[in-house]
Amino acid sequence: MTDIFWNDELQRWAMDEAPTQSNEYSSSPEGAASTIASKNIVSERNRRKNLNDKLLELRGAVPRISKLDKASTIKDAIDYIQDLQEQERNLQAEIMELESESLKKDPGFDFEEELPILLRSKKSRCDQIYDHRVPMSHPIKVHELRVNSMGENTLFVSLTCSKDGDAMIKICDIFESMKLKIITANVVIVSGMVMKTVLIEADMGERDNLKIKIERAISAVSDHWST
Amino acid sequence: MTDIFWNDELQRWAMDEAPTQSNEYSSSPEGAASTIASKNIVSERNRRKNLNDKLLELRGAVPRISKLDKASTIKDAIDYIQDLQEQERNLQAEIMELESESLKKDPGFDFEEELPILLRSKKSRCDQIYDHRVPMSHPIKVHELRVNSMGENTLFVSLTCSKDGDAMIKICDIFESMKLKIITANVVIVSGMVMKTVLIEADMGERDNLKIKIERAISAVSDHWST
DNA sequence: AAGCACACGTGAGAC
DNA sequence: TGTCTCACGTGTGCT
């Protein structure tokens, strides 16, 4: 593997310390030609070393390396740069949403698809950054799950559980996977507990069904929990 | 500038289309040796072309280019990657700040006057706009009032009532008048109902007291205005 | 002219 | 075994 480089470096060192113009074929047997040839040789050697050092440094700057090739290094760098650019776009979009969310002042107006930002921002950030790093940790320990009817076709869901590992991400995943008609969603973490409050458009007859669906979805991602 | 590459490409094309083994010095004048030599030559040529293409693609992915060198391309890519990483860190820190600003998570800290933003914004907005316009309307018809304990010193209050007149303003007034240590507050109006979700710093022993206090405050406001 | 950047062909080593 | 990757020395062209 790296022995290649080391061998080559040693070779280069040896030739550097002994600049014997070994293979000069003496088109004109003057000493000047050989000296400019060796100058060229050592210059080229330095240029190559510089380029290889840069390439190695580039490899060090890229966290995900597929192979140790030169081409793979560059390809990984390209992919990583594109990933970073996309992540930067997502983060800036999320910041925009958060800023406009923090000074959102008129509740009950047009929050049909503006308010589930919390779920969408979760998908665009946590999934790409943390999801593959923490694939499966503790199961979710549900502390309380309530489903109440509000008005005629609105259900109010409140789910609190202990914040173990990535419980918040899992909860968001659960609610996202259920394809509900979410009106508003709110997640709060306080004193080791994560609480999610969701308003869903549904008939009040679906209240008990929804509770069972949520429980099943939770048990699907976490094996067991204590009521 | 790029004429260098083009010239080289043309040279390569010419040599590709006419694979005349021009400079075979015939160490052994058999055809096999020359064929494997040319195989090596064209293979190396493809490898170099691939690497150069990758490098060119990398240059295309980096927006800021200092020079058109190979080494400069790699160096610019490294600098750009480090810039992106630092920007990503900054953006994530900003998001963390925004998130923890919108939902303050540490009970018992210093959120006495930072977190009731919702109430303060209400006061500075609703009071000035609506308060003197609709001073007396219907009493508040409470649909549900729950007070649960969350963790050790946190109470979770959920109050839903019919949105008659300025129920939302009254509710905000009620919660503001109680001088509670509010961690987060959330108000949602949907289908003729107004729902307020509040997290309060308090001992769980105060749960029932708080419920009674809220009920009395509601009745006090309602009595004072219309009932 | 001296310096620089590049592509080329070639032998060597690793898989 | 062949195939892949690499560093090397060299010639060429640009500045």
UniProtKB/TrEMBL annotation, chains A, B:
Q: Which Gene3D superfamilies match?
A: Helix-loop-helix DNA-binding domain
Q: Name one Pfam family in it.
A: bHLH-TF_ACT-like_plant
Q: Which UniProt keywords apply?
A: Coiled coil, Nucleus, Transcription, Transcription regulation
Q: Which PROSITE patterns match?
A: BHLH
Residue intervals of the BHLH domain: 35-84
Coiled-coil region: 41-104
Main location group: nucleus
Intracellular or extracellular location(s): Nucleus
PANTHER family documented for this protein: TRANSCRIPTION FACTOR BHLH35, TRANSCRIPTION FACTOR SCREAM2-RELATED
Protein name (Swiss-Prot/TrEMBL)? BHLH domain-containing protein
- Organism (species): Salix suchowensis
